[in-house]
Amino acid sequence: MDSSSTDERASIVGVPLGDERIREAVRVLVAELGEDPTREGLAKTPDRVAKALQFLTSGYRQDIDKVINNALFTVDYSEMVIVKDIDFYSLCEHHLLPFFGRCHIAYIPRGKVIGLSKLPRIVEVFSRRLQVQERLTSQIAETLAAKLDPLGVAVVVEASHLCMMMRGVEKQNSSALTSAMHGVFRTDARTRTEFLDLLRLGRGATVFGGDSGHQTDGAYA
Ligand code: ZN
């Protein structure tokens, strides 16, 4: 597939500490699975896996305050803010296999809003870790509740889990749905219903401001 030029090897220089141990662990794993870790197609696999895993778990090394950094604004706005269909990819901590899907976030500000582009970044910080879907959902909600002190925050995550799909544990097309509701989303059924109804309105990255259903394009800018 790829040449055995020294260029790719050279590009390994500068990867984070710990990589050599990950590479060695992958070599052991490949051998224990009955393969020859030195054959051509597998020779660079430990390098690739180490890099991929460092990236897929980079959320551990990110500071949520730096991610939010200067993106909190004081505004006189207390209608529901929704960002739908934030794609995410995570690793299930039970099998180290991917689970992935979409995250939907809503909150009702209490004098403070966050830049819309920060919401996908917050999702990344918590999804690029070894996770379970329930904890991913609640960590996103709790972070927004703590940083924004909103009247309420709601997070819904829908995901497909390869550990279920590939092993045939559940139907191939089944997805798991989790939610975390804080503040008025928990206490007020009408607010919660409004949010859940808006989620059923088609697909695509769309932001709804207030209860008018007004759509704003470029939500992720
Ligand atoms: Zn799993």
Strand content: 15-25%
Shape: elongated
Q: Which residues sit in consecutive blocks of at least 5 with pLDDT less than 50?
A: 1-12, 202-221
Number of strand elements: 9
Mean pLDDT: 85
Name of the top-level CATH class of the largest domain: Alpha Beta
Give the helices and strands as they follow along the chain: HHHHHEEEEHEHEHEHHEE
Please provide a written account of the structure.
- The chain has 221 residues and is an alpha+beta fold.
- It is 38% helix and 25% strand.
- It has helices spanning 6-10, 19-32, 40-43, 45-56, 64-68, 118-127, 133-148, 162-165, 184-187, 189-199; strands at 72-74, 81-92, 98-108, 112-114, 130-131, 152-161, 176-183, 207-209, 214-216.
- Strands 2, 3, 5, 6, 7, 8 and 9 form a seven-stranded mixed β-sheet that branches. Strands 1-4 form a two-stranded antiparallel ribbon.
Task: From the structure above, extract its key features.
10 helices; seven-stranded mixed beta sheet; GTP Cyclohydrolase I, domain 2; binds zinc ion; alpha+beta; 221 residues; disordered C terminus; GTP Cyclohydrolase I, Chain A, domain 1; 9 strands; 2 domains
